[in-house]
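Annotated sample (chain length 454).
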Amino acid sequence: MRVTAILLAAGQGTRMKSDLPKVLHPIAGKPMIWHALNAIAQSTTEKPIVVVGHGAQEVTKYLGDSAQTVLQEPQLGTGHAVMQAESVLKDRTDLVVVCYSDMPLLRGETLQNLVETQKKNRGPISMLTVHAEDPRGFGRIIRKRDGTVEAIVEEYVATPDQLLVRELNVGGYCFDANWLWDALHRIPKNPKKGEYYLTDTVELASKDDLPVQATVMDDIEETIGINTRVHLAEVEAAMRRRINETHMLNGVTMIDPASTYVEIGVSIGRDTVLMPNTYIHGKTEIGEGNVVGPNTIIRDTRIGNHCKVLASVTEGATLEDHVDIGPFARLRKGAYLGNHVHMGNFGEVKDSHLADGVKMGHFSYIGNAQIGANTNIGAGTITCNYDGEKKHNTEIGEDVFIGSDTMLVAPLKIGSGARTGAGAIVTKNVAEDMLVVGMPARAIKKLERKVKGK
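Output written by the structure step:
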């Protein structure tokens, strides 16, 4: 059976007070429409249709090939919005799922249950409802004696008795496609607002003596729609709780989940501990047995196993196993730290490869460099990689000792086993096993290298 979703995303969202289209505001690192698309993908078989209006160009650009868009112009209500998809979907699908793009907490399993309900329904509509003490302005569900839905009564026209009803319309529907297209043309124009409401299809089905079924949701948080920045924050908090609970159930420890921010799509291995005020963003993969935080920001970074990242910032970096950095370390794009690398406080690495066992002292900057295994970078070392026009590389061999406050003026090569004296300014290549000192540095003697393990 062919099942297609129509996502309604044409609203202007004036209460957001934003130049950005409402459905592109992020929740846990992804635009809210991404969450809606992710949910419907679990219950549909065809490419979704997104009805756009306000900010249509921006929304369409974001969607790319993930959905087909149809324009609603002018915007004359939800029934009119769905009608815009008729020319695209008529005779091309069996069931139509309709929901809103500003409900990012709606789960795919919930929509799947809705579709299964409609597959068993001899009538043309199944819908989502919820029981809640706070109606939040939602329409009330009026049922017949046999338990099917008779009508959806909007709050502003409801009678006092109807306002007491606590079963509410969520705004998720599954329609028999053939019935839907005809019904849309029979929806009367609302006399007060001059719009056509999708909810009126329920009354049309009832008048045709066709049953409308309702699937009652258990989790009221799923029903939260976003109309203001207050709602945005409410949904963000709920999504963060959901994400954190999933990671904790999979073996991740969070000392204080309320102060731990993990975006959607982040991978974290078991027995990793996230300390308070840790923020993990983007395409980040974290292995097992790590300790991250407190006060740490991780973005687009791969961290291996058994690492410690204390009060630091990493972006576009790679840490292999048993790496420890911080506090107040910064790894910028292209930083690669091999196994057992140590990086002290207030250090910075960019576009550089630190091989296994490198020890990097505090207050150092390493940029555009390749550093060999077991090399020691003394405190205050700086690779002077930029000459005002171009970036230049620094190559340092294995088992090198760079003295504190050394300036390495690139382009530069330092051979394995070499040493620099404290405060040296190195402007020329240094041969293997050579000691250089001074400003500018000069060679003073050949060293006898001590090989570890011998």
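Annotation: The mean pLDDT is 95.
Annotation: Residues 287 and 365 are 27 Å apart (CA to CA).
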